[in-house]
Each structure stands twice: as structure tokens, then as C-alpha cells.
Specification:
seven-stranded mixed beta sheet, globular, alpha/beta, 30% helix
Length: 166
């Protein structure tokens, strides 16, 4: 995969199980990434929107773009992500990633594990924002809020704030 040195914002949009596998490779290929924006975390297609200093383009990766293995269910997605992570933390997480935004957050276990991974590895992370899925019951929102607020943070980014939008 080529290196995207000018990529500063990544919008992985809709992640299917193959998108979860592909995401670590995108992170590794974007050493200057400063912001991640997740519109929805679980779907059947994977759309990536790239923003660089001068260009904006999108790539759609459907289930047919990959080998036809795996399912489109969300269970086990973080395991796919984790198994694709390089032996070392991607440079963008160590040096540049400052903001992450999750829209349509459902509080699924795989989503929580992804958030935990970013909080413990992104050394300069300053802000993580969440907007819960509108159909998520208020009780689950409060439970998820509690879990997210108690997640461990990297010692270097201990001042990272977590915000919740309505």
C-alpha cells in the first residue's frame, strides 16, 4: 500500500468485517493522520473518505472487493482489526492523531474495544467525541457512557477528554 503523507483526516465511514481488517493498513499508511471520523461502525460495505491538504476522494470497498470469506456480522470485528495490526503501533497513533469522532455509536463490544485500543495507543490524542445512535435506548447510552468514561488512557495522553453529543 502506498504512503499517504498528506492524509490528515480519515473518514472510514461504514466498516464491514473486511474494513476492520483493512483499517490497520490505512493507519500505517497515513503517518501524519490527525483525525479519524467514524460515521457508522458496522455495515455490509466499506467506504473510505480521504482528506488531504489539497484533495478529497472516496474509495468504496464492497464485500466483493475482497476474498469471499468471513461474515458481515459485527461480532469478531475487533479481532479482525487486532490480527491485522502491524507489530508496532502505527506512527500516526504515536505522533499525530489528536481527534476521533464516532457518530451513530451503539456501544457494541467491538466498538468499545476499538475505542480502548485508540485510548491506550494514541499518545497525543486530545479529544474523542461520541454521538449515540438515535435508536439506542437511554439506559444503554448511560451504561455505555459509564464504560467509555472509565477506559484506561495512554499515560502520555492522560489529558484526553471524552465528549458526548446529543
Amino acid at each position: 500500500m502506498p504512503t499517504f503523507r498528506n492524509l490528515t483526516e480519515l473518514k472510514p465511514g461504514d466498516l464491514n468485517i473486511h474494513g476492520w481488517e483493512f483499517l490497520p493498513h490505512l493507519l500505517e499508511s497515513a503517518p501524519n493522520l490527525e483525525a479519524l471520523v467514524y460515521m457508522r461502525v458496522f455495515v455490509t460495505n466499506f467506504v473510505v473518505s480521504f482528506v488531504t491538504h489539497t484533495y478529497h476522494f472516496a474509495v468504496a470497498l464492497t464485500r466483493d472487493s475482497f476474498s469471499p470469506r468471513g461474515s458481515v456480522e459485527h461480532e469478531g470485528c475487533f479481532a479482525k482489526f487486532e490480527s491485522s495490526i502491524p507489530n508496532c503501533v502505527p506512527k500516526c497513533l504515536s505522533l499525530h492523531l489528536r481527534r476521533i469522532y464516532f457518530a451513530e455509536f451503539n456501544g457494541e463490544q467491538d466498538e468499545l474495544e476499538l475505542v480502548s485500543y485508540f485510548l491506550t495507543t494514541a499518545e497525543v490524542l486530545r479529544e474523542v467525541k461520541f454521538r449515540f445512535c438515535s435508536s439506542l435506548p437511554i439506559e444503554k447510552q448511560y451504561g455505555t457512557w459509564s464504560k467509555l468514561s472509565s477506559l484506561q488512557r495512554c499515560s502520555k495522553s492522560k489529558y484526553c477528554t471524552i465528549h458526548f453529543e446529543k
